[in-house]
What we know:
Blueprint: H1 2-15, H2 32-35, E1 39-41, E2 44-46, H3 60-63, H4 92-95, H5 97-125, H6 129-150, H7 160-186, H8 189-196, H9 199-209, H10 217-236, H11 242-264, H12 271-310, H13 312-337, H14 342-364, H15 370-401
Antiparallel strand pairs: 1-2
Amino acid sequence: MPALDARRRRHRRRRGPAPLRRGPAVASPLPAAARAGAVHDGGQLVGAASSAPTSSSPPACSRHRPPRGCRSARPPPPSASDPAGDTKSVGLLEKYPAITTGFFFFMWYFLNVIFNILNKKIYNYFPYPYFVSVIHLLVGVVYCLISWAVGLPKRAPINSTLLKLLFPVALCHALGHVTSNVSFATVAVSFAHTIKALEPFFNAAATQFVLGQTVPLSLWLSLAPVVLGVSMASLTELSFNWKGFINAMISNISFTYRSIYSKKAMTDMDSTNVYAYISIIALIVCIPPAVIIEGPQLMQYGLNDAIAKVGMTKFVSDLFLVGLFYHLYNQLATNTLERVAPLTHAVGNVLKRVFVIGFSIIIFGNKITTQTGIGTVVAIAGVATYSYIKAKIEEEKRVKLL
Length: 402
Protein backbone atom coordinates (compact mmCIF):
# COMPACT_ATOMS: atom_id res chain seq x y z
CA MET A 1 0.00 0.00 0.00
CA PRO A 2 2.83 2.55 0.52
CA ALA A 3 3.66 2.25 -3.17
CA LEU A 4 0.02 2.98 -4.08
CA ASP A 5 -0.05 6.05 -1.78
CA ALA A 6 3.14 7.35 -3.38
CA ARG A 7 1.64 7.01 -6.86
CA ARG A 8 -1.47 8.91 -5.73
CA ARG A 9 0.65 11.76 -4.31
CA ARG A 10 2.63 12.05 -7.57
CA HIS A 11 -0.64 12.01 -9.55
CA ARG A 12 -2.11 14.86 -7.39
CA ARG A 13 1.05 16.95 -7.80
CA ARG A 14 0.77 16.67 -11.61
CA ARG A 15 -2.98 17.47 -11.76
CA GLY A 16 -2.95 20.24 -9.15
CA PRO A 17 -4.80 20.48 -5.85
CA ALA A 18 -7.43 17.81 -5.30
CA PRO A 19 -11.07 18.94 -5.37
CA LEU A 20 -12.85 19.31 -2.05
CA ARG A 21 -14.96 16.31 -1.12
CA ARG A 22 -18.42 16.74 0.40
CA GLY A 23 -18.24 13.50 2.31
CA PRO A 24 -16.03 10.60 3.16
CA ALA A 25 -14.79 8.48 0.32
CA VAL A 26 -16.81 5.37 -0.33
CA ALA A 27 -15.30 2.40 -2.08
CA SER A 28 -16.87 1.45 -5.35
CA PRO A 29 -19.21 -1.53 -5.00
CA LEU A 30 -17.98 -2.92 -8.35
CA PRO A 31 -15.07 -5.33 -8.53
CA ALA A 32 -11.89 -4.20 -10.25
CA ALA A 33 -12.59 -6.37 -13.27
CA ALA A 34 -15.95 -4.69 -13.82
CA ARG A 35 -14.43 -1.20 -13.49
CA ALA A 36 -11.84 -2.06 -16.11
CA GLY A 37 -14.47 -3.32 -18.50
CA ALA A 38 -15.73 0.10 -19.64
CA VAL A 39 -15.39 0.67 -23.36
CA HIS A 40 -16.18 3.46 -25.79
CA ASP A 41 -18.97 2.91 -28.29
CA GLY A 42 -19.89 5.67 -30.73
CA GLY A 43 -18.44 8.34 -28.47
CA GLN A 44 -20.46 7.16 -25.43
CA LEU A 45 -18.80 5.58 -22.43
CA VAL A 46 -20.64 2.31 -21.88
CA GLY A 47 -19.95 -0.98 -20.18
CA ALA A 48 -20.19 -2.48 -16.72
CA ALA A 49 -19.15 0.72 -14.97
CA SER A 50 -21.96 2.69 -16.58
CA SER A 51 -24.52 0.69 -14.63
CA ALA A 52 -22.89 1.29 -11.25
CA PRO A 53 -25.01 2.94 -8.54
CA THR A 54 -24.32 6.60 -7.87
CA SER A 55 -21.92 7.30 -4.99
CA SER A 56 -20.15 10.30 -3.59
CA SER A 57 -16.80 9.02 -4.82
CA PRO A 58 -15.51 10.25 -8.18
CA PRO A 59 -15.47 7.85 -11.12
CA ALA A 60 -12.72 5.30 -11.34
CA CYS A 61 -11.16 6.96 -14.34
CA SER A 62 -10.71 10.23 -12.38
CA ARG A 63 -9.15 8.69 -9.28
CA HIS A 64 -6.36 7.05 -11.23
CA ARG A 65 -4.49 7.97 -14.36
CA PRO A 66 -7.31 7.87 -16.89
CA PRO A 67 -6.90 5.46 -19.77
CA ARG A 68 -6.58 6.92 -23.22
CA GLY A 69 -9.95 8.10 -24.41
CA CYS A 70 -11.37 8.42 -20.85
CA ARG A 71 -10.47 12.07 -20.20
CA SER A 72 -14.03 13.28 -19.82
CA ALA A 73 -17.40 11.73 -19.10
CA ARG A 74 -19.02 14.17 -21.53
CA PRO A 75 -19.66 12.44 -24.88
CA PRO A 76 -18.12 14.08 -27.95
CA PRO A 77 -20.44 15.83 -30.38
CA PRO A 78 -21.82 13.61 -33.16
CA SER A 79 -19.62 13.56 -36.22
CA ALA A 80 -20.69 13.63 -39.85
CA SER A 81 -20.30 9.86 -40.06
CA ASP A 82 -22.15 9.24 -36.77
CA PRO A 83 -25.60 7.84 -37.54
CA ALA A 84 -26.83 9.40 -34.28
CA GLY A 85 -26.02 12.89 -35.55
CA ASP A 86 -28.84 15.05 -36.83
CA THR A 87 -26.77 16.70 -39.56
CA LYS A 88 -24.49 15.15 -42.14
CA SER A 89 -22.17 17.14 -44.31
CA VAL A 90 -22.58 15.98 -47.91
CA GLY A 91 -21.35 17.54 -51.09
CA LEU A 92 -23.58 18.80 -53.86
CA LEU A 93 -22.69 15.88 -56.17
CA GLU A 94 -23.43 13.34 -53.42
CA LYS A 95 -26.73 14.99 -52.60
CA TYR A 96 -27.77 15.20 -56.26
CA PRO A 97 -26.19 12.21 -58.06
CA ALA A 98 -28.27 12.97 -61.15
CA ILE A 99 -26.00 15.96 -61.78
CA THR A 100 -22.95 13.69 -62.01
CA THR A 101 -24.78 11.19 -64.22
CA GLY A 102 -26.00 13.99 -66.47
CA PHE A 103 -22.48 15.34 -66.77
CA PHE A 104 -21.22 11.89 -67.80
CA PHE A 105 -23.93 11.64 -70.46
CA PHE A 106 -23.12 15.11 -71.76
CA MET A 107 -19.38 14.41 -72.00
CA TRP A 108 -20.01 11.03 -73.63
CA TYR A 109 -22.21 12.60 -76.34
CA PHE A 110 -20.00 15.65 -76.75
CA LEU A 111 -16.79 13.65 -77.20
CA ASN A 112 -18.52 11.19 -79.52
CA VAL A 113 -19.87 13.94 -81.77
CA ILE A 114 -16.50 15.74 -81.85
CA PHE A 115 -14.72 12.49 -82.68
CA ASN A 116 -17.03 11.68 -85.59
CA ILE A 117 -16.82 15.20 -87.04
CA LEU A 118 -13.03 15.49 -86.71
CA ASN A 119 -12.57 11.94 -88.00
CA LYS A 120 -14.56 12.70 -91.15
CA LYS A 121 -12.70 15.98 -91.71
CA ILE A 122 -9.40 14.10 -91.59
CA TYR A 123 -10.64 11.63 -94.19
CA ASN A 124 -11.55 14.52 -96.49
CA TYR A 125 -7.84 15.33 -96.92
CA PHE A 126 -6.20 12.08 -95.74
CA PRO A 127 -8.23 9.03 -96.94
CA TYR A 128 -6.22 6.30 -95.21
CA PRO A 129 -8.54 4.61 -92.68
CA TYR A 130 -6.14 1.78 -91.76
CA PHE A 131 -3.43 4.23 -90.72
CA VAL A 132 -5.91 6.49 -88.92
CA SER A 133 -7.29 3.46 -87.04
CA VAL A 134 -3.77 2.67 -85.83
CA ILE A 135 -3.38 6.28 -84.65
CA HIS A 136 -6.67 6.04 -82.71
CA LEU A 137 -5.46 2.98 -80.85
CA LEU A 138 -1.89 4.25 -80.45
CA VAL A 139 -2.96 7.48 -78.72
CA GLY A 140 -5.27 5.47 -76.47
CA VAL A 141 -2.50 3.02 -75.54
CA VAL A 142 -0.11 5.88 -74.70
CA TYR A 143 -2.86 7.41 -72.55
CA CYS A 144 -3.30 4.09 -70.72
CA LEU A 145 0.44 3.66 -70.16
CA ILE A 146 0.72 7.16 -68.69
CA SER A 147 -2.30 6.48 -66.46
CA TRP A 148 -0.70 3.26 -65.23
CA ALA A 149 2.59 5.06 -64.59
CA VAL A 150 0.91 7.55 -62.23
CA GLY A 151 -1.31 4.89 -60.68
CA LEU A 152 -4.66 6.13 -62.03
CA PRO A 153 -5.73 3.39 -62.22
CA LYS A 154 -3.28 0.89 -60.83
CA ARG A 155 -2.31 -1.63 -63.49
CA ALA A 156 -3.89 -5.03 -63.00
CA PRO A 157 -1.50 -7.98 -63.48
CA ILE A 158 -2.03 -10.21 -66.50
CA ASN A 159 -0.90 -13.72 -67.37
CA SER A 160 -1.06 -16.10 -70.33
CA THR A 161 -4.50 -17.38 -69.33
CA LEU A 162 -5.99 -13.89 -69.32
CA LEU A 163 -4.27 -13.09 -72.61
CA LYS A 164 -5.91 -16.12 -74.22
CA LEU A 165 -9.29 -14.92 -72.99
CA LEU A 166 -8.80 -11.32 -74.09
CA PHE A 167 -7.22 -11.99 -77.48
CA PRO A 168 -10.48 -12.94 -79.30
CA VAL A 169 -12.15 -9.85 -77.82
CA ALA A 170 -9.30 -7.63 -78.97
CA LEU A 171 -9.25 -9.25 -82.43
CA CYS A 172 -12.96 -8.53 -82.95
CA HIS A 173 -12.46 -5.03 -81.55
CA ALA A 174 -9.65 -4.36 -84.03
CA LEU A 175 -11.62 -5.69 -87.01
CA GLY A 176 -14.75 -3.78 -86.06
CA HIS A 177 -12.80 -0.58 -85.49
CA VAL A 178 -10.95 -0.72 -88.82
CA THR A 179 -14.03 -1.58 -90.87
CA SER A 180 -15.98 1.20 -89.17
CA ASN A 181 -13.31 3.68 -90.20
CA VAL A 182 -13.27 2.36 -93.77
CA SER A 183 -17.03 2.96 -93.86
CA PHE A 184 -16.70 6.46 -92.37
CA ALA A 185 -14.05 7.30 -94.96
CA THR A 186 -16.17 6.26 -97.96
CA VAL A 187 -19.76 7.26 -97.09
CA ALA A 188 -21.46 10.03 -95.13
CA VAL A 189 -21.21 9.77 -91.33
CA SER A 190 -25.01 9.86 -91.02
CA PHE A 191 -25.40 6.96 -93.45
CA ALA A 192 -22.64 4.91 -91.77
CA HIS A 193 -24.39 5.27 -88.41
CA THR A 194 -27.72 4.36 -90.01
CA ILE A 195 -26.20 1.09 -91.24
CA LYS A 196 -24.63 0.51 -87.83
CA ALA A 197 -28.13 0.76 -86.37
CA LEU A 198 -28.48 -2.85 -87.58
CA GLU A 199 -26.11 -4.03 -84.84
CA PRO A 200 -29.01 -5.14 -82.55
CA PHE A 201 -30.24 -7.41 -85.34
CA PHE A 202 -26.87 -9.18 -85.51
CA ASN A 203 -26.76 -9.37 -81.71
CA ALA A 204 -30.15 -11.09 -81.63
CA ALA A 205 -29.15 -13.48 -84.42
CA ALA A 206 -25.91 -14.42 -82.65
CA THR A 207 -27.73 -14.92 -79.36
CA GLN A 208 -30.27 -17.22 -81.03
CA PHE A 209 -28.07 -19.23 -83.39
CA VAL A 210 -24.56 -19.03 -81.88
CA LEU A 211 -25.18 -19.01 -78.14
CA GLY A 212 -28.35 -21.10 -78.44
CA GLN A 213 -30.39 -18.74 -76.24
CA THR A 214 -34.00 -18.16 -77.20
CA VAL A 215 -34.82 -14.61 -78.30
CA PRO A 216 -38.43 -13.61 -77.53
CA LEU A 217 -40.73 -12.98 -80.47
CA SER A 218 -41.32 -9.40 -79.31
CA LEU A 219 -37.62 -8.63 -79.83
CA TRP A 220 -37.61 -10.09 -83.32
CA LEU A 221 -40.71 -8.07 -84.24
CA SER A 222 -39.12 -4.86 -82.91
CA LEU A 223 -36.20 -5.40 -85.29
CA ALA A 224 -38.42 -5.33 -88.38
CA PRO A 225 -38.55 -1.48 -88.46
CA VAL A 226 -34.74 -1.37 -88.11
CA VAL A 227 -34.21 -3.55 -91.18
CA LEU A 228 -36.92 -1.70 -93.11
CA GLY A 229 -35.54 1.73 -92.21
CA VAL A 230 -31.95 0.88 -93.14
CA SER A 231 -33.16 -0.57 -96.45
CA MET A 232 -35.14 2.58 -97.24
CA ALA A 233 -32.20 4.83 -96.38
CA SER A 234 -29.75 2.75 -98.42
CA LEU A 235 -31.82 2.77 -101.62
CA THR A 236 -31.73 6.55 -102.05
CA GLU A 237 -28.64 7.58 -100.06
CA LEU A 238 -26.61 9.94 -102.23
CA SER A 239 -23.25 8.83 -100.78
CA PHE A 240 -24.03 5.10 -101.05
CA ASN A 241 -21.30 2.79 -102.27
CA TRP A 242 -20.79 -0.91 -101.71
CA LYS A 243 -17.40 -0.53 -100.02
CA GLY A 244 -18.82 1.65 -97.27
CA PHE A 245 -21.96 -0.48 -96.89
CA ILE A 246 -20.14 -3.82 -96.69
CA ASN A 247 -17.53 -2.54 -94.23
CA ALA A 248 -20.24 -1.15 -91.96
CA MET A 249 -21.96 -4.55 -92.03
CA ILE A 250 -18.66 -6.31 -91.21
CA SER A 251 -18.24 -3.87 -88.33
CA ASN A 252 -21.67 -4.86 -86.99
CA ILE A 253 -20.76 -8.56 -87.13
CA SER A 254 -17.36 -7.94 -85.51
CA PHE A 255 -18.77 -5.98 -82.60
CA THR A 256 -21.45 -8.64 -82.14
CA TYR A 257 -18.80 -11.33 -81.74
CA ARG A 258 -16.84 -9.00 -79.50
CA SER A 259 -19.84 -8.98 -77.17
CA ILE A 260 -20.03 -12.78 -77.26
CA TYR A 261 -16.35 -13.26 -76.47
CA SER A 262 -16.51 -10.56 -73.81
CA LYS A 263 -19.08 -12.62 -71.92
CA LYS A 264 -16.79 -15.64 -72.11
CA ALA A 265 -13.78 -13.59 -70.98
CA MET A 266 -15.23 -12.23 -67.76
CA THR A 267 -12.34 -11.46 -65.41
CA ASP A 268 -11.87 -9.82 -62.03
CA MET A 269 -10.28 -6.78 -63.69
CA ASP A 270 -12.05 -3.45 -63.68
CA SER A 271 -13.37 -2.21 -67.03
CA THR A 272 -10.61 0.42 -67.38
CA ASN A 273 -7.83 -2.18 -67.21
CA VAL A 274 -9.69 -4.58 -69.50
CA TYR A 275 -10.16 -1.87 -72.12
CA ALA A 276 -6.49 -0.90 -71.83
CA TYR A 277 -5.28 -4.44 -72.48
CA ILE A 278 -7.76 -4.87 -75.35
CA SER A 279 -6.48 -1.63 -76.90
CA ILE A 280 -2.85 -2.79 -76.67
CA ILE A 281 -3.63 -6.13 -78.33
CA ALA A 282 -5.82 -4.47 -80.97
CA LEU A 283 -3.03 -2.03 -81.80
CA ILE A 284 -0.58 -4.89 -82.39
CA VAL A 285 -3.17 -6.60 -84.62
CA CYS A 286 -3.89 -3.44 -86.68
CA ILE A 287 -0.30 -2.43 -87.47
CA PRO A 288 0.56 -5.18 -90.04
CA PRO A 289 -2.53 -4.58 -92.29
CA ALA A 290 -1.94 -0.83 -92.21
CA VAL A 291 1.70 -1.27 -93.25
CA ILE A 292 0.88 -3.80 -95.99
CA ILE A 293 -2.23 -2.12 -97.45
CA GLU A 294 -1.46 1.59 -97.06
CA GLY A 295 2.24 1.72 -96.25
CA PRO A 296 3.59 2.08 -99.82
CA GLN A 297 1.07 4.82 -100.71
CA LEU A 298 1.77 6.72 -97.50
CA MET A 299 5.52 6.70 -98.06
CA GLN A 300 5.19 7.65 -101.72
CA TYR A 301 2.69 10.53 -101.59
CA GLY A 302 0.01 10.12 -98.87
CA LEU A 303 1.80 11.88 -96.02
CA ASN A 304 3.29 14.57 -98.25
CA ASP A 305 -0.10 15.37 -99.80
CA ALA A 306 -1.78 15.73 -96.40
CA ILE A 307 0.99 18.00 -95.08
CA ALA A 308 0.85 20.12 -98.25
CA LYS A 309 -2.92 20.60 -97.84
CA VAL A 310 -3.15 21.50 -94.14
CA GLY A 311 0.42 21.84 -92.86
CA MET A 312 2.46 19.66 -90.54
CA THR A 313 1.16 21.22 -87.30
CA LYS A 314 -2.53 20.80 -88.12
CA PHE A 315 -2.00 17.31 -89.54
CA VAL A 316 -0.23 16.04 -86.42
CA SER A 317 -2.59 17.82 -84.01
CA ASP A 318 -5.66 16.48 -85.83
CA LEU A 319 -4.38 12.91 -85.60
CA PHE A 320 -3.52 13.31 -81.92
CA LEU A 321 -6.87 14.89 -81.00
CA VAL A 322 -8.97 12.38 -82.91
CA GLY A 323 -7.13 9.54 -81.15
CA LEU A 324 -7.59 11.22 -77.78
CA PHE A 325 -11.31 11.84 -78.38
CA TYR A 326 -11.74 8.24 -79.52
CA HIS A 327 -10.24 6.86 -76.32
CA LEU A 328 -11.97 9.32 -73.99
CA TYR A 329 -15.45 8.87 -75.44
CA ASN A 330 -15.13 5.08 -75.14
CA GLN A 331 -13.91 5.44 -71.55
CA LEU A 332 -16.70 7.91 -70.72
CA ALA A 333 -19.23 5.56 -72.30
CA THR A 334 -18.08 2.77 -69.98
CA ASN A 335 -18.16 5.03 -66.91
CA THR A 336 -21.61 6.36 -67.85
CA LEU A 337 -23.19 2.98 -68.50
CA GLU A 338 -21.88 1.66 -65.16
CA ARG A 339 -23.85 4.36 -63.34
CA VAL A 340 -27.29 3.80 -64.85
CA ALA A 341 -29.95 1.13 -65.17
CA PRO A 342 -30.20 -1.07 -68.29
CA LEU A 343 -33.19 0.88 -69.63
CA THR A 344 -31.35 4.20 -69.30
CA HIS A 345 -28.35 2.55 -70.93
CA ALA A 346 -30.48 1.51 -73.91
CA VAL A 347 -32.08 4.93 -74.31
CA GLY A 348 -28.67 6.59 -73.99
CA ASN A 349 -27.20 4.53 -76.80
CA VAL A 350 -30.09 5.38 -79.12
CA LEU A 351 -29.94 9.09 -78.32
CA LYS A 352 -26.18 9.09 -78.92
CA ARG A 353 -26.70 7.80 -82.46
CA VAL A 354 -29.41 10.42 -83.05
CA PHE A 355 -27.04 13.16 -81.88
CA VAL A 356 -24.23 11.96 -84.14
CA ILE A 357 -26.47 11.67 -87.21
CA GLY A 358 -28.08 15.06 -86.61
CA PHE A 359 -24.85 16.96 -85.97
CA SER A 360 -23.06 15.33 -88.91
CA ILE A 361 -25.83 16.43 -91.28
CA ILE A 362 -25.65 19.99 -89.91
CA ILE A 363 -21.84 20.27 -89.89
CA PHE A 364 -21.16 18.71 -93.29
CA GLY A 365 -24.34 19.90 -94.96
CA ASN A 366 -25.10 16.44 -96.31
CA LYS A 367 -28.03 16.45 -98.69
CA ILE A 368 -30.43 13.59 -98.01
CA THR A 369 -33.54 12.58 -99.86
CA THR A 370 -36.94 12.41 -98.23
CA GLN A 371 -36.89 8.61 -98.36
CA THR A 372 -33.45 8.50 -96.75
CA GLY A 373 -34.66 10.78 -93.96
CA ILE A 374 -37.77 8.68 -93.35
CA GLY A 375 -35.75 5.47 -93.44
CA THR A 376 -33.28 6.85 -90.89
CA VAL A 377 -36.10 7.87 -88.53
CA VAL A 378 -37.79 4.47 -88.87
CA ALA A 379 -34.51 2.65 -88.19
CA ILE A 380 -33.74 4.71 -85.10
CA ALA A 381 -37.30 4.26 -83.81
CA GLY A 382 -36.92 0.50 -84.28
CA VAL A 383 -33.64 0.50 -82.34
CA ALA A 384 -35.31 2.48 -79.55
CA THR A 385 -38.19 -0.03 -79.38
CA TYR A 386 -35.82 -2.98 -79.41
CA SER A 387 -33.63 -1.45 -76.69
CA TYR A 388 -36.67 -0.71 -74.50
CA ILE A 389 -38.08 -4.25 -74.80
CA LYS A 390 -34.70 -5.87 -74.21
CA ALA A 391 -34.01 -3.72 -71.15
CA LYS A 392 -37.40 -4.60 -69.67
CA ILE A 393 -36.75 -8.32 -70.23
CA GLU A 394 -33.33 -8.07 -68.56
CA GLU A 395 -34.84 -6.18 -65.63
CA GLU A 396 -37.52 -8.86 -65.16
CA LYS A 397 -34.83 -11.57 -65.17
CA ARG A 398 -32.83 -9.65 -62.58
CA VAL A 399 -35.86 -9.23 -60.31
CA LYS A 400 -36.64 -12.97 -60.49
CA LEU A 401 -33.09 -13.83 -59.44
CA LEU A 402 -33.29 -11.64 -56.33
